[in-house]
Amino acid sequence: MRTKSWTWRLGMGVAALVLGATSLQAGSGRAALLWGTAGNDVLIGADDDNQDNAAIHPPGTAADQSLKRADMLFGMEGDDLLIGLLGDDYLDGGPGDDVLVGGTEQGVAPNSDLQVGGDGNDVAVWAGGDGSDAFAGGAGLDAIVFAVIDRDGANVPTVQMVNTGYGERPAVTANLTGAPGFCTIDSAPAGSGYEWLVRFVRRTDNVLLVTVRVQSVEQVFCASRAGGGAEWADLTSYSGGELRPVTLDRIRELNPLAGAMVR
């Protein structure tokens, strides 16, 4: 079996990540704009294009010169993991089986991310507190997962090695069955370019929290309406109504990458 290697590019605002017993300290590379390589990359935004950055926003300037913590991450080729953190981020996985995480913003605006999967089997993971996003999957089997992403004390998603059945790779892990809401799906407005509006509704009071616009996305995985379980929709054949119950084992069969990340 061919051994895969991973290139880590971390924005300056990320202090450290722990992967197994290895601590990876952030360097001084490019921050708000990160490009991957032709191989497999882990890209994490810096969140440092803000008013506190004097190089961006000169002291005493009234008008905000910053991008309000927005990052642009380009995975390029390979099986990449892209994490945007705070702000309105743009994530583009490029060719390969990519994992895209726009947040986690924990309800702090601005928090609407634009995500493009590209060719390959891509998974976008949305966490409670992230904003209303957009996800264009591209060619391949693409999925969006609504779950509580595991993160450290600095609110950075913890990167773990997961086994998809085709070998191990870095990804995030998340509590799908314990998410605080459920999903509904509506058709996107004609002419919008999107196909579906996937909405996340808080379970305790049926309040609509966010809407994720999707295009060229085949699967949706969400917590069940009652809680404690999971539901899914096959968007290639979806014709309306509630999502269908699904077990974690079945998710692993339907989408090995998504199934390796959720519990």
Task: Report on this structure.
This protein has 263 residues and is mainly β. The chain is built from 2 helices and 23 strands. A 9-stranded mixed beta sheet has the order 1-5-7-9-11-13-21-22-23. An 8-stranded mixed beta sheet has the order 4-6-8-10-12-20-19-18, with no helix packed on it. The longest helix is centred in the last third of the chain and has 7 residues. The protein is globular and about 55 Å long. The two termini are 28 Å apart. About 7% of the residues have low confidence.
Shape: globular
Helix content: under 10%
Number of helices: 2
Provide the gyration radius in Å.
Answer: 18 Å
Q: DSSP strand (E) fraction?
A: 35-45%
Order the strands across the largest sheet as they lie in space: 1-5-7-9-11-13-21-22-23
State the end-to-end CA separation.
28 Å
Q: Provide the residue-averaged pLDDT.
A: 90
Structural class: mainly beta
Could you describe the largest sheet, including whether it forms a barrel? 9 strands, mixed
* Element order: H for helix, E for strand: EEEEEEEEEEEEEEEEEEEEEEEHH
Note poorly predicted spans.
12-30
Instruction: Please report the total strand number as a whole number.
Output: 23
Descriptive key words:
nine-stranded mixed β-sheet, 263 residues, globular, mainly beta, 5% helix
SSE blueprint and pairings:
Blueprint: E1 6-10, E2 16-19, E3 22-25, E4 33-35, E5 40-44, E6 72-74, E7 81-83, E8 90-92, E9 99-101, E10 114-116, E11 123-126, E12 134-136, E13 143-146, E14 148-149, E15 159-163, E16 168-172, E17 174-175, E18 181-187, E19 196-202, E20 207-215, E21 219-223, E22 230-234, E23 244-246, H1 248-254, H2 256-261
Parallel strand pairs: 1-5, 4-6, 5-7, 6-8, 7-9, 8-10, 9-11, 10-12, 11-13, 12-20, 13-21
Antiparallel strand pairs: 2-3, 14-17, 15-16, 18-19, 19-20, 21-22, 22-23
